[in-house]
Design goal:
2 domains, single chain, mainly alpha, Leucine-rich Repeat Variant
Length: 277
């Protein structure tokens, strides 16, 4: 046999190797189906439109605001009203898709890290609130811990999508009190702000007080403002109950949380609550 000639056995082995390689590559580089292509197009269109409406002055302004809260924003620089208008426009194009596909699209937007794409993702989740199921809690909790990195994102997510879920499935509220022990300031704030949706609808008052208890002595001003805001919203419907709660807790309550909590109470109640003992 000549030196450069391959033996029949070796040639057969090489053929098998090539087939195995082709099979593996087919699994990795398979053609996407039509639905995948449509989703890719939608994501690309959203990003093109955001780049189109990006404004340098808006980006600098938002960056200053968010850095003041020790955040590191990733921004296009699109004003929030414009972002919400785009969100509504594109949701009309996807709303007939199955819920899990819309949530997957939202998840893909979140992974970009851009504030504006996050706003769209959270808005789409809120628009799906009528289709929420118990199993969705795990996804929402993951979004909180992985994609909420500032007060704007925290409040948007918690007073809409997450709050709506807890309003529908209050059995999960005790799980949110575990967040009060988190090292992440935004997760701790979320444990309170996620109850604002319910407080505005006159329900879950006892859970509001339990969460306030869990956060009462928190040292972080953003957390103090968060649970103070929660109490303030509850006071719109239960002023007497919130006043009584504040009066029994004010000795240990930071003044920032106290001022937020009593803001909507009567002048007389505010004056009484602010008295130093």
């Amino acid at each position: 046999m000549e030196r450069n000639q391959i033996s029949p056995r070796k040639a057969h082995q090489q053929k098998l190797t090539n087939l195995n390689d082709l099979s593996r590559n087919h699994k990795v580089y398979r053609y996407k189906n039509k639905g995948d292509c449509v989703e890719d197009m939608i994501r690309a269109e959203i990003r093109d439109r955001l780049r189109k409406y990006a404004d340098l002055k808006e980006r600098k302004k938002r960056t200053r605001w968010e850095k003041a809260s020790h955040e590191r924003p990733k921004l296009y620089g699109v004003p929030t009203p414009v972002v919400r208008k785009l969100s509504s426009e594109f949701f009309r194009r996807v709303k007939k898709k199955p819920k899990h596909e819309i949530l997957q699209l939202s998840n893909d937007l979140l992974r970009s890290g851009y504030s504006e794409e996050r706003t769209i993702a959270f808005d789409w989740a809120f628009r799906l609130r009528g289709k929420f199921e118990r199993l969705d809690f795990q996804l929402l909790e993951t979004w909180l811990t992985e994609h909420v990195q500032g007060w704007g994102a925290c409040d948007d997510f918690c007073t809409h999508a997450l709050g709506a879920f807890l309003y529908k499935f209050p059995a999960f509220i005790p799980k949110t009190r575990d967040w009060a022990r988190s090292e992440n300031r935004w997760v701790r704030r979320a444990s309170a702000v996620c109850l604002i949706y319910s407080a505005r609808r006159k329900v879950h008052l006892e859970d509001v007080f339990r969460t306030a208890d869990a956060l009462l002595m928190d040292h972080d001003v953003m957390v103090q403002k968060g649970y103070g805001w929660m109490l303030k919203e509850a006071s719109n419907h239960y002023p007497k109950e919130v006043f009584n709660y504040v009066m029994t807790k004010k000795k240990g309550m930071p003044r920032t949380a106290l001022r937020y909590a009593i803001e909507k109470l009567s002048l007389e109640h505010r004056a009484e609550a602010m008295k130093r003992e």
